[in-house]
Amino acid sequence: MKLSNKIMMLTMSFAVSGMSSQCYAGGFAIGTQSGSGTGNAFAGGAAVADDASVAWSNPAGMTALPLGMHVAGALHALKPSFKFGNTGSTGVFAAPGTGDGGDGGGWAFVPNGFFAMDISPALRFGVALNAPFGLKTDYDSGWRGQLLGLKSEIKTVNIQPSIAYKVSDSFSVGGGINVQKIDATLTNFAGAAGLANLKADDYGFGFNLGVTFQPSPDTRIGAHYRSSIKYDLEGNATFSAAPAGNTPVRADLKMPDSFSLSLLQRLNPAWELMGDITWTGWSKVQQLVVIRSGAIAPGSTLTTLPFLWDDTWRFGVGANYRMSDQVKFRFGVALDKTPTQDSTRTPRLPDQDRTWLAFGVQYKPSKQGTLEIGYAHEFIKDAAVNVPVPGFTTCAAGCLTGRFKDKADIISIQYSHLF
Q1: Is residue 164 within 8 Å of residue 124, measured between CB atoms?
Q2: Distances, alpha carbon 335 to alpha carbons 39, 58, 209, 316, 328, in Å
Q3: Residues 13-53: tens digit of each pLDDT
Q4: CA angle 160-161-164, nearest 5°?
């Protein structure tokens, strides 16, 4: 093989490595899953049962809803910001190119829909339609880190039917199944190979189980487990200037499971307090092996990508103040740890530990209707990156070295109705 061809094929292999390395990074779970929860920073999620969104957060809580048919629809506007600052990049990353990428974040709009109804006074049925995971970063063309990433977009759609049974006045159980679709589109500059583009998708299946325990009318404890979901992703890697290197690819991915323990405590008719601890098993994601599945060396490994993620903990506390029968104010704070590590973090998802500060208001225009508006700001620690050229484990060919200034804002609106 000619030297020029060897260089081109090596460049394409590096490009796929750079694209894939953050497609499945920890920290791209969408925590915003209901308009009512946003105002409390989702504290107490497995114990709160304000509306049909409990069909997602803990199906057992559906038994705490009034008898009837509950419908809720929410829209969340998410605005993350990721701004890179160079602190000494070397090699191929030393040249500034068109700059430091601009703001890799941007507006995203995420809808949710929920339904719950009683089959009998003790038996409930519900459905959640939502997007549990998502990621979008988009940097300026030609920026100094374009070998590592230009656009990264991951979308999921999930449907979860569930049931709940009230075993006694104080104890309920519930569970459901998850059918989830994932789509990923990732691009980066690949040198002589031009623009590299990776697209892959798959369907996955999982389950969840929950319980609620209400020792008194003013206290409810909830626990909820959500299983991992395994994907057998299939797609294609293409290169705009080197179509001979285009290849189908596949990769196995096992997403983490999670467990939440929550408390809701009513202090008096005006005040409620809630708390939440959530564990997520991101340590399941240690590496991703990308396999060629086309005519060129089928079954061979295109690249093996290390992640080395850790399990995470999330802690949240919140409060509600009922000013009148029509108006309730919500408050919440949360500490949300990242699973990513400095040694493997890349610009595709420059995630770090974050602190939520949230507030919201509930307004009931009628006995059957409820409007929720919530806002949350995420204070995110600077995310350090020190990433070698894709395909290298050291900085021999250069490292992108710097820090991302991150933050995020969330605005949620939800309307619920009881029929």
Answers
A1: yes
A2: 15, 21, 24, 6, 24
A3: 333 333 333 333 236 788 888 999 999 999 999 999 999 99
A4: 120
Tokens of 274: 């809630």
Portion of the chain with pLDDT greater than 70, in percent: 92
- The residue-averaged pLDDT of 278-304 equals 82
Q: What would the two tokens of residue 107 be?
A: 């507006």
Query: Cα–Cα distances in Å, from 303 out to 233, 291, 299?
Result: 15, 7, 12
pLDDT in tens, 314-350: 999 999 999 999 999 999 999 999 998 888 888 988 9
Tens of pLDDT along 345-382?
A: 889 889 999 999 999 999 999 999 999 999 999 999 99
Identify residue 149 by its one-letter amino acid code.
G
Give me 46's structure tokens: 């497995």
Summary count for the chain: helices (H), strands (E): 3, 20
116: domain CATH number? 2.40.160.60
- DSSP code, position 257: P
Question: Which region holds residue 182: left if phi is over 0, alpha if psi is between -120 and 50, else beta?
Answer: beta
User: Of 114, 146, 117, whose CA–CA distance to 127 is shortest?
Assistant: 114
Region of residue 91 (left: phi > 0; alpha: psi -120 to 50; beta: else): left
236, β-bridge pairs: 199, 248
What is the domain range of residue 340? 3-418
Number of structural domains the chain divides into: 1
Rg, C-alpha atoms of the chain: 23
CA 35 to chain centre: 16
From 49, 28, 26, select the one nearest 37 (Cα to Cα): 49
